[in-house]
Amino acid sequence: MIETERSDIMDLPLLITAGLAVITFLISEMYIKRQLGIKPKRVSKDRPRIYQSIDSGLTVLAFAAILIGFLYFETKTTRIIPVAFILLAKTMLRGVEEYNTDKASKAYYHHFLWAGFTVLLIVILWIG
């Protein structure tokens, strides 16, 4: 019975994260995209070089964090949190890039919304 109680506690962060992901998706799709008419933009091939370089560096860093996490860390949380921070940095980078290159489209709203979700994910992982 003690194991059952422990697994229920372990599932709570997962349920909260899934709920927040659904809420964030609905805000992005239903409100920002449909109500405000702001569509997310794809990353273009003609991005400024500085953003390409930083994005590529963060991608390599993410793969390294995954590899190092699985090789050297015991718990799932310590494996995932560094990757979540890198995901946050990539999302913020794309939001800042959209803000600096095309303010009129307001596509950066989507990136900043997902960055907020990532912050909440990191907090949930840290606590739970």
From TrEMBL:
Keywords: Membrane, Transmembrane, Transmembrane helix. The keyword Transmembrane helix applies. InterPro entries: DUF4181 (IPR025441). The chain crosses the membrane at residues 12-32, 53-73, 108-127. It comes from the Bacteria. The keyword Membrane applies. This is DUF4181 domain-containing protein. It comes from Halobacillus salinus.
